[in-house]
Amino acid sequence: MAACVYKVTRFVEWPAVEDSTKAFVVGYLQDDPFDGALAEVFADQSVRDRPVELRRIESESDIADVQLLVIPRERKDETCGLLSQARAHAVLTVGDFEGFGNHGGMVEMAVEDRRLKLRINQDACESAGLEVSSRLLALAEEARGSDCP
Question: What pLDDT does residue 120 have?
Answer without folding.
Answer: 96
